[in-house]
Amino acid sequence: xxxxxxxxxxxxxxxxxxxxxxxxxxxxxxxxxxxxxxxxxxxxxxxxxxxxxxxxxxxxxxxxxxxxxxxxxxxxxxxxxxxxxxxxxxxxxxxxxxxxxxxxxxxxxxxxxxxxxxxxxxxxxxxxxxxxxxxxxxxxxxxxxxxxxxxxxxxxxxxxxxxxxxxxxxxxxxxxxxxxxxxxxxxxxxxxxxxxxxxxxxxxxxxxxxxxxxxxxxxxxxxxxxxxxxxxxxxxxxxxxxxx
Length: 244
Fold this sequence. Notes:
Structural class: mainly alpha
Number of domains: 2
Number of helices: 10
Oligomer: single chain
Number of strands: 3
Helix content: 40-55%
Strand order of the largest sheet: 2-1-3
Shape: globular
Distance between the termini: 65 Å
Radius of gyration: 24 Å
Strand content: 5-15%
């Protein structure tokens, strides 16, 4: 089947330039170390009884991921990585999963590729954590670590745990750095951990008799210099000021 793929770098939209920065970001995020390619979607036209044997397949899924994978492999070779590391890259190349669909025409194949790209974009947007969500996730990681270690842990420990387990995607306009974790925990402890200000089922805005409690909870947080976090606090203050 792989021999029928015309070119692993080919595209159904050859006139659309590849965004090099996007390829580099994917390479850094997904393939900083040997890793498997996501399943590749291929298309063939129904022009023969045995379409898989007689026709060249064309890739329907976005080409950037394949570019990023090969970019990382090339970088590993240039760095003269060990034979063990290169063998791991080779294993992933030889065990790539393909999903094949038969299309009545190349035009149908083209629109299938456009739809797939848009579906992936929509899923990505929907699954990216908002700053609000990430604050709670960071706090949850800290809680899990403390339960496991039977002691309190620092923001640095939380940040190091993230680094050990996952490559974090850029958080909006703010890099996921130790300062972000520190600020996230400060905001959670001062604002979202308060049952009076933010009970488990959601903010009880009516329970605030004045803005004094909120001011105390948020005191100093607007000086951290992180734009997404600043906006979150300002928006929260405006909402509460409006509702009480």
